[in-house]
Design a protein that fits this description.
Blueprint: H1 29-53, H2 57-61, H3 73-83, H4 86-117, H5 123-133, H6 142-151, H7 159-162, H8 169-182, H9 185-193, H10 198-209, H11 211-227, H12 230-235, H13 244-250, H14 259-289
Helix pairs in contact: 1-14, 3-14, 4-8, 4-11, 4-13, 5-8, 11-14, 13-14
Protein name: Cellobiose transport system permease protein
Domain ABC transmembrane type-1: 90-280
Keywords: Cell membrane, Membrane, Transmembrane, Transmembrane helix, Transport
Length: 295
C-alpha cells in the first residue's frame, strides 16, 4: 500500500478555462487606422515623385493636380542620362557612401570600444568633447573643413567627400553605449589570460558582439552620405566627380525648372536606396532592436 506524506505540496489542478493571451483584444480599429494613415503619409511623397516623373511640367502645375502616373517616364529618364553624366554620378555616390559606411563600421566601433572598455588618461574628457561636437551645427565646420581640403589639395576630388565622413560623433557614442552593455569585463579578462592582445579582443570578441549594431550604423552612414548635398556642392566642381545629388541639381536650369525631368532624376536616385532597404530592412530592424530587451 502506498502512503502519502501529509507534508506533500498541494497539487494545483487546472480550472479548465482557457488562458488569455496578453494584449489580446486591446487593439482597436483606430490603431489600424492610425497605422494606415502613417504608412500613407510616409509613402505618398515617394508616389507623388513618381507621378511627377511620369508627366510633364504642364500636368504637374494644373489645378487640380493629377494623381495618376503618365507615360513619359522612360522618355524623361533617357533625357536625364543624356543631360548629365548620371551613371558616373551614381558610381561616385556608391564609392563615397560605401567607403564612408565601411569606415564608420570599423572606426566608430573601435573608438566606442576604447571609450567603453579601455582605461587611459583623459578618457572621460575626450568622450565629453565627442558629445559636444554633436551639438555643433554642421554648417559651422564648412569653412575650416574647406581650408583643410584646400591645403591638402583635395578640392574637386572624391577623397574630400570620403575622409571627413569616415567617423562620426553619433556613431562613436552609439557604439560606446552598445559595447558597454554587451561586453563583460570578465570575458575580456579571460581573453587576456589566454594571451589575447587588445586588438585581438576587439576584433575577435567585441566586434562580433556588436556586428548587427555596426551594420545598422553603416547603413545609416550610407544613406546620409548618399543624400548629402551641401558639402559636395561646395567642394566638387567637375561634372565627372558629381555625386547623384549634384547631378539632380544640374538638371535644373537657371531660370526654369522642368519638374518632370528633376523628379525623374530624383526617383532614379532613390531606386538604389529602395533596393537596399528591401534586402537589408529586416536585418536593420534586428540590429536596432538588438539588446533592447536584455536585462
Amino acid at each position: 500500500m502506498t502512503t502519502h506524506s501529509s507534508n506533500a505540496a498541494p497539487v494545483i489542478r487546472p480550472t479548465g478555462r482557457p488562458l488569455k493571451r496578453a494584449f489580446v483584444g486591446r487593439v482597436r480599429w483606430w490603431t489600424y487606422a492610425f497605422l494606415i494613415a502613417s504608412v500613407f503619409m510616409s509613402a505618398f511623397p515617394l508616389y507623388w515623385m513618381f507621378v511627377v516623373s511620369t508627366n510633364d511640367s504642364a500636368a504637374v502645375s494644373q489645378m487640380p493636380p493629377t494623381v495618376l502616373p503618365g507615360g513619359n517616364f522612360f522618355a524623361l529618364a533617357e533625357q536625364v542620362f543624356t543631360t548629365v553624366p548620371f551613371v558616373q554620378s551614381l558610381v561616385n555616390s556608391f564609392v563615397v557612401a560605401g567607403s564612408i559606411a565601411l569606415a564608420q563600421m570599423v572606426l566608430c566601433t573601435l573608438a566606442g570600444f576604447a571609450f567603453a572598455k579601455l582605461q587611459f588618461r583623459g578618457r572621460d574628457p575626450l568622450f565629453i568633447v565627442v558629445l559636444i561636437t554633436m551639438m555643433v551645427p554642421t554648417q559651422l565646420a564648412v569653412i575650416p573643413l574647406y581650408m583643410i581640403m584646400s591645403n591638402l589639395d583635395w578640392i574637386d576630388s572624391l577623397q574630400a567627400l570620403i575622409v571627413p565622413g569616415m567617423a562620426s560623433a553619433f556613431g562613436i557614442f552609439w557604439m560606446r553605449q552598445h559595447l558597454a552593455s554587451v561586453l563583460n569585463n570578465e570575458l575580456m579578462q579571460a581573453a587576456r589570460i589566454d594571451g589575447c592582445s587588445t586588438w585581438q579582443i576587439y576584433w575577435r570578441i567585441a566586434f562580433p558582439l556588436v556586428r548587427s549594431a555596426a551594420f545598422v550604423l553603416g547603413l545609416l552612414a550610407f544613406v546620409t552620405a548618399w543624400n548629402d548635398f551641401l558639402w559636395p556642392l561646395i567642394v566638387i566642381q567637375s561634372p565627372e566627380n558629381y555625386t547623384v545629388q549634384l547631378a539632380i541639381k544640374a538638371l535644373q536650369r537657371q531660370y526654369f525648372v522642368d519638374y518632370g525631368l528633376a523628379m525623374s532624376g530624383s526617383f532614379l536616385a532613390t531606386i538604389p536606396l529602395l533596393i537596399l532597404f528591401i534586402f537589408v530592412g529586416r536585418k536593420m530592424v534586428a540590429g536596432v532592436m538588438d539588446g533592447a530587451f536584455k536585462g
